[in-house]
Amino acid sequence: SIKVPKHYYNNDPTSFAFKTCQERWPVIVQNAVDDVTSELNKFNSKEAKEQGKIIVAQLKDLKQKLINDAKIEPFNEPNVPSLNSYDETLQKLPESEITWLTGPWLYLECYLYRLINLFFLKQSHWSDFDVFENLKRETFKSSTFGIYELAIQYREFKKQLDARKPNLDSLELLFREFVDICLWGNATDLSLLANATLEDIKSVQGAEARKKSEKNILANDLDQAWQQLLSIQKNDQKRVDFVLDNAGFENYTDLILSLFLLDTGMVNTVVFHCKTRPWMVSDTMIKDVHLLLSDLQNLEWFPEHRIDLDFLVSEISTHLKNGKIILKESEFWTLDLDYWNISPLETKYGGNLIHKELLHSDLVIIKGDLNYRKLTGDRQWDRSTPFTVAIDGLNKSGLKLFALRTCKADVCCGLPKGKNEELCEYWRSLGNEVGELWCSSGKWAVISYSDGNGA
Ligand code: F6P
Ligand code: MG
Asked: Among residues 125, 133, 222, which one has the least CA distance to residue 180?
């Protein structure tokens, strides 16, 4: 049997955890301080202002604790079941004392966002305030170019689809293109988006553009996901799920892939799984999907290509209204627990319910970096370990899992033998001290599949 390696830890200078906890987390908390401070003045009630000041003080205190490497305390919130999970895990960790700058990365990162959220939950006027909402929307607003391009491309696609049903070969090409867009939608570097129209896709230029980003995809199981989609075509019910990652532009690409799947009849239902609270700064809550649609209709933000944008919004709204695109949320996604807990055996925190729910899906698309870390347990796997090994029991869970992930953290699996060494050397040759950190740069990606029928 395979030995499960240990987690990544914050005090490991060769891990991206190190820089994350020392540099990135204090900035994220400071940004929250600034956001609440400016938001304070918009409240009229004195009580609300006072409450806001309490939150600001708590956030400042948290920032100091981070910097000073304070000890992690249990939440002790018996009325919030999901926080009991955090306390149980904390107790079970092998170290007698866990601190911000030395403890396990994944656990502490989840803990950080829950703690921030708790500050808000405790203040009645602020309990459903999303401290990251301004940032999410500002970033979306500034993605104008990519947003226009995809809206134009989608309307063109739809026109051609209505004129003539595409054959299987062109459907497959389109699937590759839309998956590619959806994958790189997770990267901060939006320049990878090819501005191809439906016709271009078959042209040398479109193929070349795709080739260029293709070499940065280090493992690619897309064929298996395509075969899985083909195998269900005779069914009445054909359903794809998305375990979502970021709101804004990435979610926009999720919607575009969904439209492709629905319009071509490849599936008849798409389910989006959203977070119940602000999470990892940019993750998608149900209200963020609605905000995205209303923001797309903002003429000041997006004055051009109105025909294309309005068309897109109306298509999506119709699917939402008819229940073809369904928005769901669960507390499970903001637990500390990794996704090995998506199992009938996890009955305490809803892992069993998520498992049951996802069994109804013909393909579960799992987006982004954090979700990938939870799939693989955020453990120090040799990077040539097969994905189906690194996801532990999920490999025989019956779930068809399809991970689209740009690499922004250490854990990575499914690479050909020797590839990691090659990239480490390349990364050092660019003047970086730690070669392994190529994997946290967001420049590479993996597309991985598990059919759920055993490794
Ligand atoms: O360091 C990687 C990181 O910033 C983590 O904090 C988190 O796991 C992740 O990236 C967020 O990225 P994504 O939105 O792709 O999950
Ligand atoms: Mg995210």
From this structure: 222
